Amino acid sequence: MSKRDYYEVLGVSKEATEQDIKKAFRQLAKKYHPDLNPDNEEAEQKFKEINEAYEVLNDPDKKARYDRFGHEGVNGQGGGFGQGFEGFGGFGDIFEDIFDMFGGGFSGSSRKNSPRKGSDIKYRLDIEFEEAAFGIDKEIEFMRTDDCSKCSGTGAEPGTSKTKCPKCNGTGEVKYAQTTPFGQFVRVGTCDKCNGLGEIIDKPCSKCSGTGKERKTRRINIKIPAGVDTGSVIPLRGEGEAGEKGGPRGDLYIYINVKPHEIFKREGNDIYCEIPISFVQASLGSEIEFPSLDEKIKHIIPGGTQTDTVFKFKGKGIPNVRGYGRGDQYVKVVVQVPTKLSDKQREILKQFAVESGEKVYEHKKGFFDKVKDAFTG
After folding, report:
1. Which pLDDT belongs to residue 366?
2. Nearest CA to 337 among 289, 263, 276?
3. For residue 36, what pLDDT is reported?
4. DSSP 230
5. Among 273, 271, 269, CA closest to 319
6. DSSP string covering 61-113, please?
7. Where are the beta strands (DSSP E) in 101-151?
8. Is 272 helix (H, G, I), strand (E, B) or coil?
9. CA nearest to 131, candidates 7, 250, 261, 18
10. Which backbone phi and psi does 139 adopt, to 5 degrees?
11. In this structure, are residues 263 and 242 in contact, taking their beta carbons and an 8 Å threshold?
């Protein structure tokens, strides 16, 4: 069977630079390496073909003869592996790339049997506005993975025990020797008999089916600090899912959601509210009473106060979550216009308008208004 053109094998043109050839070879070597394609004869043959092409095209002298005479120009000097690793310019760093794909080497051990930290748990906690402002102790309930209460996490039915896996001798790993064009490599894989556990359970626990784990309800008391807001996160270390192989538990992250308040709105550590006042209060001035987070506050507003006037009360806002003081409270007064007036009130306002030099345009009753008055007495 005739050999394929070396440029075609690497997928490059005859004008390709040394770096282009090296880059193409790296990609193909990783793709078809025998250790990444066990028991795949086609991949192994392609890997050999790729290396043969690279050995020639990466050597300037061999490349020149190949470009002039084709395969005949390099027969006996290329197309094989007899020259050892020294014949492959820059091949050492390519091996490093391939080794990295295996997590540090072909003979590196599997991590399946090593301790692993458990997964984290996210929990949303809804709290009231005042609870967020001043802090509170809360009891929360959530589900998490714990050791099975029947087998105590062994996975074996009580009264029975586990036995060491005879295939991997308890290591959870087996070694496979594989011959490649570069020699023999030892590949470490997960034992298929014990699935990497190193132990065989002859009689699995009837409650957890041999997993050694079960879902349980967990109740804990937590302290919500003063000043938290929606989006605040409280981490509780070691309250997450159980670890594997003796690894530590994951963590519990509590995400705070503060319910809206019917009066107050929050911006940072400051709070805002609106208080209605009458036309008379705004005109003559008055002492008004309004709520704060701590207690009711009395405040004298001056005569002539306009609607949407804002008063600031220092230190009446939300406590800083780090304990550095408090925000402020801003109170906006909104002047309300009466919608119903008695005849006497109307006359008084007319007189006020005359004294103020204002013109008053009264609404005159139309035909339907007069009919309505007649029927209503």
Report:
1. 58
2. 276
3. 79
4. T
5. 269
6. HHHHHHHHHGGGGGTTTSSSSTT-GGGSTTHHHHHHHHHHHTTS-TTPPPSTT
7. 121-127, 136-147
8. strand
9. 261
10. -100, 125
11. no
Give residue 110's pLDDT: 46
pLDDT of residue 322: 86
What three-state secondary structure class fits 182?
A: coil
Backbone angles phi, psi at 249, to 5 degrees: -70, 155
CA distances to 6, 21, 197, 301, 343 from 12, in Å? 9, 7, 46, 85, 100
Alpha-carbon distances, residue 211 vs 37, 153, 205, 273 (angstroms): 32, 8, 8, 56
- pLDDT > 90 fraction of the chain, expressed in percent and rounded: 35
Residue 359 near residue 353 (C-beta atoms within 8 A):
yes
pLDDT tens per residue across span 151-193? 888 888 888 878 888 888 878 788 777 666 555 667 777 888 7
Residue 360: count other Cβ atoms within 10 Å of its Cβ. Answer: 10
**Short-list 149, 175, 152, CA closest to 162:** 152
Q: Token pair of 18, please?
A: 């040394």
Q: What is the C-alpha separation between 57 and 55, in angstroms, rounded? A: 6
Going 127 to 129 to 132 to 135, the CA torsion angle's sign is negative
CB 288 within 8 A of CB 335: no
Residues of the chain with pLDDT under 50: 77-93, 96, 99-110
* Residue type for position 364: K
